[in-house]
Amino acid sequence: MGCRLRIFLNREEHRTLLELQTSSKVPKRTKDRATALLLNSQGKKNEQIAQDLNWVVKTVHHTIHRWQSQGLAGLWDAPGRGRKVRDE
């Protein structure tokens, strides 16, 4: 096992992630990513975060890396992801 990834949040980042986590207008995947980051910043091990969210550990690592490289923008899916809406 490699070194443990750990993030440290300032007050503004922590508040923003809490708001995302509880908002009804935010996609579930974005909420889950915010939850993963909050749990990591509280010192919870990435293996436990993965278990709590029913993810694999690699997904937790990927979420942390996206946060470190892209910040808040890294919590949302890239445009064009998912099924396209069909015209009837």
How would you explain this protein's 3D organization?
By secondary structure, the protein is an all-alpha fold. Helix content is 55%, strand content 0%. The termini are far apart.
Q: How many strands in all?
A: 0
Unreliable segments of 5+ consecutive residues: none
Helix segment tally: 4
Give Rg in angstroms. 14 Å
Query: Which structural class should the secondary elements be placed in?
Result: mainly alpha
What gross morphology would you assign?
globular
Separation of the first and last Cα atoms: 51 Å
Helical content band:
40-55%
Strand/helix succession = HHHH
What value does the average pLDDT take?
90
Major β-sheet profile: none
Beta-strand percentage range: under 5%
Give the arrangement of secondary structure elements.
Layout: H1 11-22, H2 28-41, H3 46-53, H4 57-70
What descriptors fit this protein?
globular; mainly alpha; 88 residues; 55% helix; 4 helices
Give a quick rundown of the structure.
The chain has 88 residues and is mainly alpha-helical. It contains four helices and no strands.
